[in-house]
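Morning F.,

Quick status update on the modeling queue. The single chain you submitted on Monday has been processed. Sequence for confirmation:
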Amino acid sequence: MADSSNNNDQKNQNTRFYHPYQDLNVPIQKLYNLPTSPENLFPELGNRTHRSWSENLTYYTGVAYLSGAVAGAATGTVEGLRAAELGDSFKIRVNRILNSGGQRGRRLGNSLGTLGLIFSVTESAIQSLTDRDDMVNSAAAGLVTGALYKAAAGPRSAAIAGVFGGIAAAATVAGKQVLRRYVPI
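Structure tokens below.
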């Protein structure tokens, strides 16, 4: 027994571990030690406290459209399921579900996407005028967004929509601050 273990030790000492990158002088051990802080191309980008107007435009519009499309498609699908009749074939039922889901998703997605577009432009304009980024700017942007969105329905509808928009924007910012404070991310 001693001879077989001694024999294996000699084989391990005579063989060499295959390392395909040994001639490249690449520190493989450090290859996946990624930095934890954000890396910016320009140092002044690291000092920014908020997104630029174009980033806001893309973010708010995209998130609002996607949220509206998903919520609208879900409600439209439920409507299509409820509208199914007993004598319908499977193809007709699926067609009804897809049509109602697509129609609702398009409508709600476009509506919320428009709200996101107006909000992002308004908030960016207010931030550039006041040189601040706080809850008051977001609430004012929500107020203006609601009023502009419902302006064609009359002044009373515009005022009510403006109040709801301001409250919704302030609640969103407050909720975001609460999440940052109490939820470890």
